[in-house]
Amino acid sequence: MPAAPHDASPGLLDQRQVTLAVAFSALGWSFDLFDLFVLLYVAPALAHVFFASGRPMLSLAGVYAAFTATLLMRPAGGWVFGRYSDRRGRRRAMRVAALGVGVATALMGALPTVQSVGLLAPVLFVSLRLVQGVFMGGMVASTHTLGTESIAARRRGLASGIISGGGSGVGKLVASLVFLLVSALFPGRLYLEWGWRVMFFSGLLSSMLGLLVFSRVQESPLWEALQRSAAPAPAAPRPGLGGFAPTMLLCVVLTGAGGGLSYLTSGYLPTFLKLVNHVPPRSLGLMLSVSALGVIGASVLAGHLSDVLGRRPAMLLYGAASLLLLPLLYLGLEHAVSPLWVGGCAVLLSALGTFAYAPLMIVLNERFPTAIRASGTAVSWNIGFALGGSMPVLVSLLAHDPGGLVGALGLCIAVLAGAYLLAAWCVPARRNRMA
To answer: Which of 80, 369, 94, 434 is nearest to 238 (CA)?
Structure first.
């Protein structure tokens, strides 16, 4: 693995600026994931309006395939915006990507249905998902570097938990509240006609709020220090990603496994609760909102523990807990007989599912020098999540019917947790290019 120089210390910001950098990075990531959770929450409705067929699980697999299409384009967005972020700064990349995500999401709400235009409807829907994927991949290049580059080294794991897991929880919480409101305003048949459209339209509002917020964030001090040090010799070659192939492979496996576990808990939970537990929309919105709060708390704790225990020991602990407990919780959820039992299992699944995911950002950041950190992190993260994001499709196909979901989920969780444990064991204990 090629050697890299030590990075500058992020001591150029005061405490308020550091707090804003971490908070705004978390908000940026939450706006990104809000748009993803919108699709997950309306998946059963989209199965009817875009992928109608005689087999409900096949139609649902079509929706998740469209979801995966977005993830497949994210590596391209990570590469384009990562290079832009490494050259022009984290702030600029964040603004452009946030606007693109919001516009693409809102346009999905204006599309005709398969009942109106036939096969053209799913084609248009998937096309917009592909475009959205490029901008979503670009969000990673800035949100996943700016905050961690702005905080002291001893708290970077905590920042990772706040930004990645906390941002995810905030995105899920806002999407849950929007889903709860829209379900109340458009009950029953109205939801299939207009409710799912309003859910997508709300994506543009989140994007506009993001642009307003990002105008106040300070640029990364590590990136600015690199620009100053490179000013006298602009022709000096920058390190390239080609020399970091083993590092990127490790990062891809980690994010694929950790992200897949998140998608099979927080991501798949709305569908499971609808199809298996038959939770009505209002109760579902409340359960998912409480689950989002669990995600926020668990991710912050998991990130902090990675500072205290060390990255590798913490991830080994998280992987083992996922392997043992997540299948049992889904089994318990399947046999839940009361709303309190259902809600408790849902909160525990969401919280535990984010433990393996929370420290990933800082683990990736620490593998790359500042000159290529945005590119390396964004490309690795987005390739990994493209792989992990395919898990809901695989589960839907393996299950055949709702009765087979627990077995399919248990199998996929076991494979992902095993891959996560293997990759976590290979993470270098001391090599840190942000030191």
So the answer is: 369
pLDDT exceeds cutoff 50 at 2:
no
Distance CA 379, CA 359 (A): 17
Write down the mean pLDDT value for the chain: 84
Evaluate whether residue 300 is within a structural domain: yes
Report phi then psi at 432, rounded to 5. -140, 110
Q: In total, how many domains does the chain have? A: 1
Res 426: pLDDT: 93
How many C-beta neighbours within 10 Å does residue 325 have?
17
Contacts of residues 190-199 at CB distance under 8 Å and 24 or more positions apart, as own/partner, are 191/45, 191/281, 192/45, 192/48, 192/49, 195/42, 195/45, 196/42, 196/45, 196/46, 196/49, 196/109, 197/109, 197/110, 198/109, 199/38, 199/41, 199/42, 199/109
* Mean pLDDT on 225-251: 72
- Whether 7 maps to a domain, the answer reads no
CB atoms within 10 A of CB 15: 7
Do the domain assignments include residue 432?
A: no
Q: What does the pLDDT look like over 132-182, one tens digit per residue?
A: 889 888 888 878 887 788 888 888 999 999 888 778 778 878 888 888 899
Q: What is the DSSP string of 102-152?
A: HHHHHHHTTPPPHHHHTTHHHHHHHHHHHHHHHHHHHHHHHHHHHHHHTS-
Cα–Cα distance between 293 and 55 in angstroms, integer? 34
CATH number at residue 368: 1.20.1250.20
Structure tokens at 286: 């409340």
- The reported pTM is 0.78
Residue 379 and residue 263 in contact, taking contact as beta carbons nearer than 8 Å: no
- 21 pLDDT band, cuts 50/70/90, is confident
Using pLDDT thresholds of 50, 70 and 90, give the confidence band for residue 435: low
Residues of the domain holding 299: 15-225+242-426
Residue 102 domain flag: yes
Sign of the CA dihedral 167, 159, 258, 276? negative
pLDDT range class, residue 4, cuts 50, 70, 90: very low
What confidence score (pLDDT) does residue 250 get? 95
